[in-house]
UniProtKB/TrEMBL annotation:
It comes from the Eukaryota. The lineage of its organism: Eukaryota, Viridiplantae, Streptophyta, Embryophyta, Tracheophyta. ATP binds at residue 958. Its main location: membrane. GO terms for molecular function: ATP binding; protein serine/threonine kinase activity. This is non-specific serine/threonine protein kinase. Residues 929-1202 form the Protein kinase domain. InterPro entries: Kinase-like_dom_sf, Leu-rich_rpt, Leu-rich_rpt_typical-subtyp, LRR_dom_sf, LRR_N_plant-typ, LRR_R13L4/SHOC2-like, Plant_receptor-like_S/T_kinase, Prot_kinase_dom. Its EC number is 2.7.11.1. It comes from Iris pallida (Sweet iris). The keyword Phosphoprotein applies. The chain crosses the membrane at residues 860-885.
Length: 1213
């Protein structure tokens, strides 16, 4: 065996000694060949096949793939080029040391190589080209690369390289090209790069670079391309960049750059691409940019740029792309833009632009896309837009356009997308629109269009979406619509359409979404509707339709939303609906439908909501309903249902509403209903139920509404009812209940609207604990056998608006309060002996004198005593009043110095009652809104914690005053907040009521113990683990879905953020501040603050004040990402539009303070993030509805999204 040292000596001698022709060395230095063969042996089998020519018995320089050698006599490898062969293995297994100094070119790009860059590469002193891009290389960029003084072209892009760019890069003075993009390189850009005087192209985009852009880059006189987009760079754009005279491309998009755009950029006469979008740049657009005569792309979108669009941009005659979207640009669109004859795309969406659309834009005959949506543009659509013969997309939605639709738009025969919804456009739809033969989407909803739908629209054979909802369109549905063979969405709800649905609609075999609700359609549904086998949504509610439902409406087994309520349909439910397992939401209420419940309905594993109320269904309730495991609402009221409640209903763990009222159901109420822990509304009234009220009712901890009235229930009221601490409505009237009223009922401190125990056989006293029902409005105990007196504590329930204790055996004095003095006499009548100062009652008798013979002198003495006591009482009252005024000395005084008290014309509706006492209680509890009771503040005002009499804790939101408030403003405030008090949902903070005085307005809410989601996320992550966070997201989704889809009219939140999502002790999330913005005038100083919180605002709301449900959807997306990340996702949201955002790995954004989610939880986290990303679409129409979001998040078994967080990118969502 030859010692190693001798072997090395032998290898060195082979460089100079002649070698036998039979050895490898005859054609190549053995050390180089052996290094290559050794590396080949480490590659995967398939890769070795790609290098099958590499065998020792052949001549490497002439036969081995990818090798180029120097000329004889020394045959050394000068180039090793193996691009795109799919080689799989580790690059660091290749020993590059033997290839020095001969190797000048190394190209292993577009393979599947992994591992770090080999250190031996530093020995390649003559290397000119190094191409390792598009592999899976990892590790840091070696600082030794700075020793490659001959290196001219370096391409390491599209790998997984990490760490910083080494300062030694500044030594590569021969470098002309450096392509490092698409890695995970972090740290600052070294200023030494400014030494690379020969550098022509530097691309480090799509990395994690931070810090500022070095001013030294201004020294790169040869630079033509500078691309740094998709990083985390901050600070200003160095003005020195304006000195790189030959610069052709400057791409700095998707960073965190601040400050203004340097005017010196206007000196870059050779510049063709200027991309600065998705930063935080402010200030105006420099007019000097108009000097860039060779500019082809100007992209400034998604910044904070202000001021007008410079007219000088009209000089950029070679410009093809102009992107100004999502800024705060104001003023009108300059007519000079009509000079941009090369322009292809003009996107100025989501700004503050005003004035008309210049007719000069009609000169842009090369224009393909014109987006001016979400601005404040007024006037009409100019007819000159009809001259844009190459236009494929026109979007001017969410502006203030008026006038009519110009017929000239019918000339745009290449147009594929036309969106004008959310304006005030009037008049008819031009028949010329039928010429738009390439149109795929037509959105003209939310205008004031009238007239009929032109039959010519039937010529649009490529149309997939026709949306004309919420206008005043009248007349019949044209049968020609049935010719739209490609139509997938037909959205015509909320118009004045009349007549029948044409049978030709059955030809729309691609239709997935049919919405005709809220019109005046009549007649029966054509049987041809059954041919629509792709239908997912069928909505025809609130019309005058009659006849039978289509027999095969769910023939395609895809139907999810079936809404036919408020019509005159009759007959039985179609058999296809019974087996329609895809159903998610079904509303058939308020029709004349009949038939057996058992035969008409089946098992629906995805069903969330069904309402069959106010029909003529009969028969029993099938036990199969208990197998609809996702059901949240089951309503079958006002039918002819008989039989019993199947115990299987108790298996519906997600059920929130159960309403079987007004039927003919019998037997006992099953105790299994006590298992419905999610139930918040239970209405079984007006039936024939017997037996006792189940004690299991106390387990329904979320119950808010309980109505068992008008049945034949017997026994006592169970004491366990006191455990239903969230009850707001309790009606047990018109039964045969006996025994005394449990004092535990008095512990139901949340009872607000009704407590009705009337028309039973109750005995015993009225519990004194009823005095703790401090929010109760209506109390009815009439027609019982109650005895004793009316507790004096009831006099302190200042929220009461009505009370009825008639037809009992009550006696003694009635509480001497203003409320009881106003109670109608009938409400106190037919008792044993009530007395007092109430209407219809005799005054209570005074105690009799000791003896009749004491005579007149005793009477005079008594009168004297009464007179003296009266004077003393007046003195005491005066002193007491003085002390009270002294205690409240901080209250503002009127001009005469008296403390202001609410005048009689002011409105008090806290818990819907009128009176000064509630106002005084709240002012007293907050010490006249003293700062020490302050718990938060916002654009609308301040939030205070108030502990009221009875230890009821509430949150009081004092709204800042509106300037020059009129009587109409006050009236509007009362009506709006009155509507909001009727909103009831488990995930919405309860609004108890309001107070409106000349001095102030405030709202009274339920107090949430853990405060806001923002506070909990900011205070630490331990308590809010992954399961709870997913629960928070679902809670918020359910609340918004209720507000948007179950409230009439829909309620838009307008200002959703993590600050107004509140958590209770059990981390249940409730949405607060819903609808608050509607309480202020649009022109008041508070309006802007309430139009949305910065960082959560949908573009169309922030810039136009045009509020839709889609604005809430966007805000929900932001809040959802904040929950997952543990911080506001501003950086991520701003980057989503770029490729850098799509390449963000999910593992990099989940809250690092928590342990990584397990695989099962990770699937749910991935699902939630995917939903959030769809909610953040810039196009409102592309966002899902909150109902869709709620349904998707409620699915029990979300499909696996990924296995490991670190392997999923945002683009995979």
């Amino acid at each position: 065996m030859i010692p190693c040292r001798s072997l090395l000596l032998l290898l060195n001698l082979l460089l100079v000694l002649p070698l036998p022709t039979t050895t490898i060395a005859s054609s190549l230095l053995p050390s180089q060949a052996q290094a290559l063969l050794l590396w080949k042996s480490t590659l995967h089998d398939q890769s070795q096949q790609s290098l099958s020519s590499w065998i020792p018995s052949t001549s490497p320089c002439s036969s081995w793939l990818g090798l180029t050698c120097t000329k004889p006599p020394l045959l050394l490898v000068s180039q090793l080029n193996l691009p795109g062969l799919g080689l799989s293995g580790r690059l660091d297994a290749l020993d590059l040391t033997p290839f020095s100094p001969s190797l000048s070119s190394l190209d292993l790009s577009s393979n599947n190589l992994s591992g770090p860059i080999p250190p031996g590469i530093a020995a390649l002193s003559n290397l000119v080209e190094l191409y390792l891009f598009s592999n899976r290389l990892s590790g840091a960029i070696l600082y030794q690369l700075g020793q490659l003084g001959s290196l001219s072209r370096l391409a390491l892009y599209s790998n997984n390289l990490t760490g910083p760019i080494p300062p030694s890069f500044g030594n590569l003075t021969s470098l002309t090209l450096a392509a490092l993009y698409g890695n995970q390189i972090d740290g600052p850009i070294p200023s030494e790069i400014g030494n690379l005087g020969n550098l022509v192209g530097f691309d480090a985009s799509d990395n994690l670079l931070s810090g500022g852009i070095p001013r030294s880059l201004g020294n790169l006189a040869s630079l033509r391309v500078l691309s740094l987009f998709g990083n985390r760079l901050s600070g200003n754009i160095p003005k020195e960049i304006g000195g790189i005279a030959g610069l052709v491309q400057l791409q700095l998009a998707s960073n965190f750059l601040t400050g203004s755009i340097p005017s010196r950029i206007g000196n870059l006469a050779m510049l063709q691409i200027l991309s600065l979008e998705n930063n935080i740049l402010s200030g105006g657009i420099p007019q000097e940019l108009g000097e860039l005569k060779k500019l082809q792309v100007l992209s400034l979108g998604h910044n904070n740029l202000t001021g007008p669009i410079p007219a000088s941009l009209g000089n950029l005659t070679e410009l093809s792309l102009l992107y100004l979207f999502n800024n705060q640009l104001s003023g009108s669109i300059p007519p000079e833009l009509g000079n941009l004859v090369s322009l292809i795309n003009l996107v100025a969406s989501a700004n503050h632009l005003t004035g008309p659309i210049p007719a000069a834009l009609g000169n842009l005959t090369n224009l393909k896309r014109l987006y001016l949506d979400d601005n404040r543009i007024s006037s009409s659509v100019p007819r000159q837009l009809g001259d844009l013969g190459n236009l494929t997309a026109l979007n001017i939605t969410a502006n203030s356009l008026t006038g009519t639709l110009p017929a000239s738009l019918g000339n745009l025969t290449l147009l594929a997308y036309l969106a004008l919804y959310g304006n005030q456009i009037s008049g008819p739809i031009p028949s010329e629109f039928g010429n738009l033969v390439n149109l795929r989407e037509l959105h003209i909803s939310d205008n004031v269009l009238n007239g009929s739908i032109p039959p010519t629209l039937g010529s649009l054979r490529r149309l997939t979406t026709l949306a004309l909802s919420n206008n005043s369109i009248s007349g019949p549905l044209p049968s020609e619509i049935g010719d739209l063979q490609s139509l997938q969405e037909l959205i015509l709800q909320l118009n004045n359409l009349t007549g029948p649905i044409p049978p030709s609609f059955g030809s729309l075999t691609s239709l997935r979404d049919l919405r005709l609700s809220g019109n005046q359609l009549s007649g029966s549904l054509p049987p041809e509707i059954s041919k629509l086998t792709d239908l997912v949504s069928f909505e025809v509610s609130n019309n005058h339709l009659s006849g039978h439902l289509p027999p095969d409406v769910c023939a395609g087994r895809l139907l999810e939303f079936f809404v036919v309520s408020f019509n005159q349909f009759e007959g039985e439910v179609p058999r296809s609906l019974r087996s329609c397992t895809s159903l998610i939401r079904a509303r058939l209420e308020n029709n004349r439908l009949s038939g057996s419940l058992v035969d008409g309905f089946g098992v629906y594993p995805r069903l969330l909501y069904i309402d069959l109320s106010f029909n003529r269904f009969s028969g029993d309730v099938s036990p199969d309903w208990g197998r609809c495991s996702n059901l949240t609402s089951l309503r079958i009221s006002a039918n002819e249902v008989t039989g019993t409640i199947p115990p299987e209903i108790g298996q519906l763990s997600s059920l929130g509403v159960l309403d079987f009222s007004s039927n003919q159901m019998t037997s006992e109420i099953p105790g299994e209903l006590g298992k419905l822990a999610s139930l918040f509304k239970l209405n079984l009234s007006n039936n024939q139920f017997t037996g006792a009220v189940s004690r299991g009712i106390g387990r329904m901890s979320n119950l808010e509404y309980l109505d068992l009235s008008s049945n034949n229930l017997t026994g006592t009221i169970p004491t366990e009812v006191g455990g239903c601490s969230k009850l707001r409505w309790l009606d047990l009237s018109s039964n045969q209940l006996n025994g005394s009223i449990p004092f535990q009922v008095g512990n139901l401190g949340s009872l607000q609207q009704l407590l009705d125990l009337s028309r039973n056989r109750l005995t015993g006293p009225i519990p004194s604990q009823f005095g703790k029902l401090v929010m109760l409005q209506d109390l009815d105990l009439s027609h019982n056998s109650l005895s004793g007196s009316i507790p004096s504590s009831l006099g302190g329930v200042v929220s009461l608006s009505s009370i009825d204790v008639s037809y009992n055996d009550l006696e003694g004095p009635v509480p001497d309060t203003e409320f009881f003095r106003r109670v109608p006499s009938a409400s106190l009548s037919h008792n044993k002996g009530l007395c007092g100062r109430a209407r219809g009652l005799a005054l209570c008798a005074s105690p009799p004198p000791p003896a009749r013979h004491r005579g007149r002198s005793r009477t005079m003495l008594l009168l004297l005593v009464v007179l003296v006591l009266g004077v003393l009482l007046l003195v005491v009252l005066a002193v007491g009043l003085y002390l009270i005024l002294l205690k409240r000395g901080r209250r503002p005084a009127d001009e005469s110095g008296n403390v202001e008290t609410p005048p009689a014309r002011d409105t008090f509706a806290v818990w819907n009652f009128d009176g000064k006492i509630a106002y005084e209680d709240i002012v007293e509890a907050t010490e006249d809104f003293d700062a020490k009771h302050l718990v938060g503040s916002g654009g609308y005002g301040s939030v205070y914690k108030a502990v009221l009499p009875g230890d009821q804790v509430v949150a009081v939101k004092k709204i800042r005053p509106i300037e020059d408030e009129s009587h109409e403003d006050v009236k509007s405030f009362r009506s709006e907040v009155g509507a909001l008090t009727h909103i009831r949902h488990r995930n919405i903070v309860k609004l108890y009521g309001f107070c409106s005085t000349t001095r102030c307005k405030f709202l009274v809410y339920e107090f949430m113990e853990r405060g806001s989601l923002a506070d909990v996320l900011g205070g630490g992550a331990e308590d809010l683990g992954w399961d709870r966070r997913l629960g928070v997201v679902r809670d918020v989704a359910h609340a918004l879905a209720y507000m948007h889809h179950d409230c009439t009219p829909p309620v838009v939140h307008r200002d959703l953020s993590s600050k107004n999502v509140l958590l209770d002790l059990e981390f249940k999330a409730c949405v607060s501040d819903f609808g608050t913005a509607r309480l202020l005038r649009p022109d008041s100083s508070n309006w802007t603050a309430l139009a949305g919180t910065r960082g959560y605002v949908a573009p169309e709301l922030a810039y136009t004040m045009r509020v839709t449900e889609k604005c809430d959807v966007y805000s929900f997306g932001v809040v959802t990402l904040e929950v997952i990340m543990g911080r506001h996702p501003g950086e991520l949201v701003s980057s989503l539009a770029s490729s850098s955002g799509q390449n963000v790995v999910l593992d990099d954004v989940v809250d690092c303070r928590l342990p990584p989610p397990t695989d099962e939880v990770a699937d749910s986290v991935g699902l939630v993030v995917g939903v959030a990303l769809r909610c953040l679409s810039v196009d409102p129409q592309s966002r899902p509805s909150m109902l869709e979001v709620s349904l998707e998040l409620t699915a029990r078994n979300p499909p696996p999204v990924f296995q490991h967080c670190d392997s999923v990118k945002m683009s995979d969502m």
